[in-house]
Amino acid sequence: MLAAMPLPPTTAPPGDETPVRGRDDACPGALRLHSADDGALARVRLPAGLLTARQALVLALAAEELGDSRLDLTSRGNLQLRGLDAGCGAGLAARLRTAGLLPSDRHDRVRNIVASPLSGLDGAGYADVSAWARELDALLCDNAPAGSGLAELAGLSGRFLFALDDGRGDVAALGADVTLIATPGGEAVLRLGSAGGHGLARPKSTAPNATDSPDTTGHADAPGHADTSGVAARRDGRPVGEDTPSRARPLGPPGPAGHPGNMKPRPAPGGDPAGAELRVRAANAPRAAALAAVAFLDAVRASGTRAWRVSELPARHAVTTDQLAGRLAEAGIQATPLAPHSPATAPSTPLVGLVAGPDGRCAVSVAVPLGRLTAARWRLLAELAARGGSGELRVTPWRGVVLPGFSPGGAGAALRELADAGLVTAPHSPWFGVGACTGRPGCAKSLADVRAEAARAVAGDASGDGRPGPPRGRLPVYFSGCERRCGHPGGRWVDVLATGDRYQVTVRDATGSARGVDVTAEQVADAVAAARGTT
């Protein structure tokens, strides 16, 4: 066996170049199917990951009758159907319209909303943001009359993302273009852009990504990354395998200084685009988010770049805090500029297991290995939600599913049934933090079946403490079939890149700096285990 060969360290080039595009983005949707090697692909938007058990059953039947009988969960809490016949688009769209999953053909691809999956279920957070999600989705889908200020929203890219955080800090760290964060006293922080974006004149991230990639099988909404490292489970309201209770702490008092709840108003608003947020009333938050997106579209037109994301705006065309405050004021929304701060660098992922609520009801939270479900497993989730829960499913941005509304006994029985079906229901699973792109045979650009390689690495993984799965603190790992690395995680992570009959295993961080080794397929598992323990 050949020894692993070290690779020289690399550094990504400075991220100060703004893309100038001559085309619209090619993100798939329910109406715009993408042609892949395994057939056509449809992406069904689920704003905030919310759907009913009846809608879920419609998707299961569509996967079986029109596709390959599998469903992929994406990093934005959406669903993808694969293996579709190229001529099934009209029939699929009709099913989705009837089920209420396609409320507006014109706005299909702009309904990109992630939200705190446990909001309103576990007593954490400052607001139940599911109501925000429904109002924002209605604003996005509305054929707004002239003069409303929202008529342009259909022009958003399919990659533009809204995040609605209830204050616990989970989706606020996902790098959305427009973020709302609930704070105490019935207020919210509105952020245009993210740390690493130019939205409010922050520097552009230099981390490698697939956002600009024309291959729409992956990018910001790519399936396959079950990045659930550090997740704790709960049974009967108590965390399993944790030393202390792990209820997510909201962002705000008595949290550390710099969190939105502790942020002070800026003494004197000016024209400085140094980067800040605005405080608005919670009742106005969804409309303020929609108007922030309109401000972005205005900036895109002024820049002449056809930017898809806020981070792609040239610094000289970035929307300043005061410009955004002025736009909100014109719409009758009072907004207070806030001092700039740096958002959390890593999201707090939802719990896995039983999640107890203050009303005595429980939610069942599971993770899906590599984000892929058979129609039978998806149908089981829907049936359990209808039989013992509230009839609702919540798909998370971490390729998981939350089923609310169970009694404690019913939740325990549902969790056992889901565990028997092969879903991740307990902590310390070796699947936590492991992800992969589509790979072969679904993607023509892939050089290997990286999902199979990921499964082999998981099969040989052990935490070293007698329990299956990774110990706390291990880096997430992502297997990619080509240099595009579609759907890879942010922050610090282990990059496993297929290069033909070999792999490059590299530890990367948000600056783009990397150092790794070149290994054979037989050496991947050991190289990954060593890299994941890097601190």
Automatic annotation (TrEMBL):
Q: Provide the Nitrite/Sulfite reductase ferredoxin-like domain boundaries.
A: 41-86, 359-420
Ranges of Basic and acidic residues composition bias in the record: 233-246
| UniProt keyword annotations, A-Z | 4Fe-4S, Heme, Iron, Iron-sulfur, Metal-binding, Oxidoreductase
Q: Where is the composition biased (Polar residues)?
A: 206-216
Q: Does this UniProt record's set of keywords contain Oxidoreductase?
A: yes
InterPro entries this protein is in?
Answer: NIR_SIR_4Fe-4S (IPR051329), NiRdtase/SiRdtase_haem-b_fer (IPR005117), Nit/Sulf_reduc_fer-like_dom_sf (IPR036136), NO2/SO3_Rdtase_4Fe4S_sf (IPR045854)
Q: State the superkingdom.
A: Bacteria
One Pfam family per UniProt: NIR_SIR_ferr
Q: Where is the composition biased (Pro residues)?
A: 1-12
Residue numbers spanned by region Disordered: 1-25, 193-276
> Which SUPFAM superfamilies would you find in this protein's record?
Nitrite and sulphite reductase 4Fe-4S domain-like (SSF56014), Nitrite/Sulfite reductase N-terminal domain-like (SSF55124)
**PANTHER family named in the record:** BLR3264 PROTEIN, FERREDOXIN--NITRITE REDUCTASE, CHLOROPLASTIC
Q: What is this protein called?
A: Nitrite reductase
Origin organism of this chain? Answer: Streptomyces milbemycinicus
